[in-house]
Amino acid sequence: MSDPVPLTTDHPVRVASATPPAPGRSRRLSDRWLAVAFISPALLLLLAMSVFPLLWALYLSFTDYSATRGGPAHFIWFGNYTAILASAQVHLRALTTLIYVVGAVSLQIVLGFTIAYLISRRTHGRGLLTTLFLVPMMLSPVVVGLFWRFMLDAQFGVINSMFGSLGLGQVEWLTRQRTALFSLIVVDTWQWTPFIMLIALAGLTAVPKYLYEAAAIDRASEWFRFRTITLPLVWPLLLIAVLFRAIEAFRLFDLVYILTSGGPGVSTETLSFHVYKVAFLGFNTGTASAYGILMVLVVIVLTQLYLRYLNKLKED
Amino acid sequence: MAVSVDEAASTGPVRDHTPPARRLGGRGRSVLEVALLTVLAVVMLFPVLWMIETSIKENRDVYAIPAKFFDFKVTLDHFKDVFAASGGGRSTLSVSFLNSVVVAGVSTVLATVLGVPAAWAYSRFSVKAKKDQLFFILSTRFMPPVVVVIPIFLMYRQAGLIDTKLGLILIYAAFNVPFTIWMMKGFVDEVPAEYEDAAMLDGYTRLQAFWRFTLPLLLPGIAATAVFALIFSWNEFVFAIFLTSSDNVRTAPPAIAGLIGGTTVDWGLVAAASVVFALPVLVFAYLVRKHLIAGVTLGAVRR
Question: Any stretches that span the bilayer, and where are they (chain B) (predicted)?
């Protein structure tokens, strides 16, 4: 390959505008080859590690295959699906998951937005404050789960210790039906409030100041300004964050596994955790696959919503 | 056409600081706001501080009732236990940390090598159904890991990849490629395509133009993207616990989680291991703080 002296690389833009390139047929062809060569390895990996497994799960979901029993799989068509959709156990898990997702995400919005709003009104130390608030989000769910498990321990946990010194009774955070799900929501909220905060803060700092100034001239009340300026401008971005969190919360597994293992009883068993139990403790691979495919369908719907809003936000 | 989200409200420049003259509700309100913010900051940071404190407490003080906040004896024994086995030699935890370094490192390199060229191609060329392809790529990242792991487990069992580092590396790379493509596409979009056109007028091929002119400009973006991929792989737990079992393959998250398996839990050791595990993540996250929004939304939202 000849390597001419690049005379004009210091100001490439000027050259380009002086003599616009006229791409010939051969160049476009080579561009297409280049695109294929550059994109296909990544796509192949995704096909092998994401799409193919899902298709396999789809196939298994129509059979009574069991990973331990071995032997040939028998087609039972929609047997697994009807069994799952009719199962009272699954309905209970769906309810638990719904409570968890709605509870955690709404707490995160309220707290995250509040913190972001308070930070955005500060003039000094904003960078430091933001950095400090972001710490929980970067930790592994394993670390978070283990640590909260220690803090929430009924006997020597620090939370109960504080309750004790305040004269309050001891609470069995993780071992009582009612409080266990609540504790799970609290821990998830602790970890992911920074996420909402970060995005809300980005939205808040992008609101043009002159809008507030104009409103101030009109003597608009603070609440009016918040409702008519701040919220409409931040909401689209916040919605993206909310949907993102909802998807993550829906597929949550690790925190449940570490914190409560689904217990006590089945009070904190989310759908993800139940799929795991059916697949890896019950070894009903076929049923678990159908269960998983149904979860994937929910995720796809949520993801479509997410992507649609993302697209809309981009176009505005 | 950029698929990534630019400024939500691109009218007007972003102001980084509020003019100090702006006093909306007077001093009382300001004090109240600062107080509220302080309380929230304490609540958010307390678990982290408690974890650090527990990791340097003597066992007696770890289990003290009521909890000791200040007057405890400082010891580094727990940290020693993280790295050294009781009978001498390396502990299983330290082996798992090494495994984590290898798995996270190699999978990140793989995801970067596959993702960056793809991101460039998506940014520069007109690809058929580009938007659909990009959306499809991102949506693979949203699949519930517990569901994906069932067929992956069967696949790996057939291929002999169960309980191997290679198996983990492959799945982590696949898990980071969508993120890398989305994140990097944003960075590539910021580099004018005219640079390459100009280079090509000078006689370079398209590939050379990419390699010699665009890629150097992308390096900071690649570094930031790789750091996020590294953090994701480092923190990952679900695939690790289902696809590996032996001590010399297992990464740190399942190894640390394994510490609470027995009847008695050495919380000092758990805390020390958690601190050692979390510290590099926090350092790395601090390095890429500018790109945090793009990073945590998988490259979908950019500022």
Answer: 31-52, 97-122, 134-156, 168-188, 209-234, 267-288
Model pTM? Answer: 0.86
Total beta-carbon pairs less than 8 A apart between chain A and chain B: 344
Parent domain of A29: 24-60
Q: Under a CB-based contact definition with an 8 Å cutoff, are residues A299 and B143 in contact?
A: yes
Give me A39's structure tokens: 């994109």
Query: Residue A49 CA to chain centroid, in angstroms?
Result: 20
Give the mean model confidence (pLDDT) for residues A34-50.
93
Number of domains forming the structure of chain A: 2
Give yes or no for B20 touching A (CB within 8 A): yes
- A122 and A42 in a single domain? The answer is no
- CA separation for the pair B96, B88 (Å, rounded): 17
Same domain flag for A116 and A39 = no
Helix residue ranges, H only, chain A: 12-18, 25-46, 52-60, 79-86, 88-120, 126-138, 141-151, 158-165, 177-206, 209-217, 222-225, 231-250, 254-259, 271-276, 285-315
The model's pLDDT over A128-166, given as tens digits with 9 standing for 90+, comes to: 888 889 999 999 999 999 999 989 887 878 888 888 888
Taking the C-alpha atoms of residue A243 and residue B172, their distance in angstroms, rounded to an integer, is: 24
Question: Cα–Cα distance between A49 and A34 in angstroms, integer?
Answer: 24
Residues 116-135 of B with CB under 8 A from A: 117-118, 120-122, 124-125, 127, 131, 133, 135
What the block records as the tokens of B37 is: 């913010």
- Give, for B261, the enclosing helix (H) or strand (E): none
The CA-based diameter of chain B, rounded to the nearest angstrom, is 76
